[in-house]
């Protein structure tokens, strides 16, 4: 099966063997990903602290 960015099935096969193909508008998908805001609230300044063994700032 092939799914769109929302997880909806856009093409699928039955039980027979074969190949399925589907075309997507890659510009529309890129625009959608930019507007999702997944990385909007990330705090890269805290990553090193989170990766330290003792949680010390600047470790």
TrEMBL record:
Superkingdom in the source lineage: Bacteria
Name of protein: CN hydrolase domain-containing protein
Organism: Vitreoscilla massiliensis
């Amino acid at each position: 099966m092939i799914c769109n960015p929302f997880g909806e099935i856009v093409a699928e096969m039955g039980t027979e063997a074969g190949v399925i193909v589907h075309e997507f508008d890659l510009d529309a998908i890129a625009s959608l990903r930019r507007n999702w805001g997944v990385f909007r609230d990330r705090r890269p300044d805290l990553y090193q602290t989170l990766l330290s063994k003792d949680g010390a700032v600047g470790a």
